[in-house]
TrEMBL record:
Domain Glycosyl hydrolase family 13 catalytic as annotated: residue spans: 285-645
Encoding gene (name): LOC113712805
CDD domains in the record: AmyAc_bac_euk_BE, E_set_GBE_euk_N
UniProt xrefs under Pfam families: Alpha-amylase, CBM_48
InterPro entries for this protein: Branching_enzy, GH, GH13_cat_dom, Glyco_hydro_13_N, Ig-like_fold, Ig_E-set
Name of the protein in its database record: 1,4-alpha-glucan-branching enzyme isoform X5
Highest taxon, organism lineage: Eukaryota
Amino acid sequence: MPTACWNLLSQTALGALMPSSLSKDASKVSTSSRCGISKCQTRLIIGSFRAAGFPSPKSCVKHERVQPTSAISDILTNDNSTMSTADVETENIGLFGMDSALESYKDHFRYRIMRYVEQKKLIETYEGSLEEFAQGYLKFGFNREKGYILYQEWAPAAQEAEVIGDFNGWDGSNHRMEKNQFGVWSIKIPDCNGNPAIPHKSRVKFRFKHGNGDWIDRIPAWIKYATVDPGKFAAPYDGVYWDPPPSERYQFKYPRPPNPKSTRIYEAHVGMSSSEPRINSYQEFADDVLPRIQANGYNTVQLMAVMEHSYYASFGYHVTNFFAASSRSGTPEDLKYLIDKAHSLGLRVLMDVVHSHTSNNITDGLNGFDVGQSSQDSYFHTGERGYHKLWDSRLFNYANWEVLRFLLSNLRWWIEEFNFDGFRFDGVTSMLYHHHGINTTFTGNYNEYFSEATDVDAVVYMMLANHLIHKILPDATVVAEDVSGMPGLCRPVSDGGIGFDYRLAMAIPDKWIDYLKNKKDEDWSMKEITCSLTNRRYTEKCIAYAESHDQAIVGDKTVAFFLMDKEMYSNMSCLTEAPPEVERGIALHKMIHFITMALGGEGYLNFMGNEFGHPEWIDFPREGNGWSYEKCRRQWDLVDTDHLRYKFMNAFDKAMNLLDEEFSFLASSKQIVSSINEEDKVG
């Protein structure tokens, strides 16, 4: 690390605010002392250690990226390739050149590559191209055509179907739909006096009769907006026909910012971003919160809970309407304003996309289309395979043609309609394995990753998804939430990988919570901390973080609250002398976040409010807390009040980001830890 960088941070943190139990003599930082690195760390230094810019010794091994063979790369990524799946059997796979141990599982890799190539070729044969296939929203759902509205819905289990809504008094007898050989129902609804028969913002539903003769009403699967009557308790959502006139459509004004050297992510939840106990709006977030994010030096915003979800306390992870932006915070046009405002500030925007499962809701969710039919005719698997017992949610059948169309189109929709710059895929571990990671400990043994437990259907879907995303948006950033550490997850599809750009380093926050709960300061091991922070695969990039939304959910608390607890209620004023608990807490809060950023990955993430040490925890309104929003907001006044000590943690967070902006240590290719000092607790 350049001397100027080290001096800047050492003056701030290793000096006046270093707690006595850790300091001894913080000035004794040596970049040449022997660190007694363990066998585990020695192996990782060559393969994956990357320190915060410390100069590498001349003996350090320099790694070059292994290029995939042209033939295998061609068949995996070239849409015009003439190679067949048989060629996979005789070609080397790029991943093997980076990790020869993977060759023992060559049959597994060849099988999944063959499945990927075959699926991609079938799509290209029958749909024109993967990109065209992923424009299902132009065919399904409601689409305005010249002189009529076309509505199409895939529901092979339905015996009869009709469209109902405000426009026909909820009587579908004059709007019966026709079914084709693929189970797709359709209807053309002619204009009335030159105007659309279904007015903009009017409610609509899909009514169908299934095998037992019952008629049921469901929100259309491809609906682009859904709302609920706020005056009715636990009211079901209604689908809304969204087709604003040109004068009301938001027009994007600013280009997407370029892909930064290193990704510094600000994880945010629009609904809980207000300082008041209420749900915040897209426009308020854009005007009030985005400038804070930019000022602190982040270059990327990751938005949670964008896809519509009827249960607010699910944090957005039990999606009910995949193509609809959550109406709690505003309209689709309001969300576009937010994203455009972010782009104007130089901020890229990622979306939490949930394709690992869906809400179990029947009346307002995709699950309502399951009426006991076979998996072939459903979005989901049948029986136990179609149900996640811990999440109480439904699981997709990724081998189904229409499921692939639905999910791939969903990705393209958010990129092209809303100008998102990429995604954070939720629940990837659950997708990768038939056991979904339940009651499973991953030790790093390769047999855990490549066996009959691997869900190859889901792997193929994610390969298709990543290929599609980077084809239509080459600068996209795609992050996988995976705790297993599957090899090849973050290698390009052309190498035989799954194609993500980053994996969340999920073990890091767990390590910090373990230390904060169970260890005295003097028992903290720099060797163990360093090994945990650097335990990642070479050439597979990670997003490091000390805490995200997960660490603050009710039952746990933020890092700052772990460190200072009740002292945060009464001793954060600069007008009084700080007690040792607060001095220690602020110093360790800084050091925990900085060493995580410095050693933990090639990108960094922080959750909204934790940059200034937000106290307490997150608790969404629910019956158990009297439907209170008190713990479901962000107390911005804490950092804005000049005489409170929160400003020190916020200033340090900004200094960290600006340091990387100037010296690019997150993106540095230097990969060695040159000093670990247990006595001085310096690494």
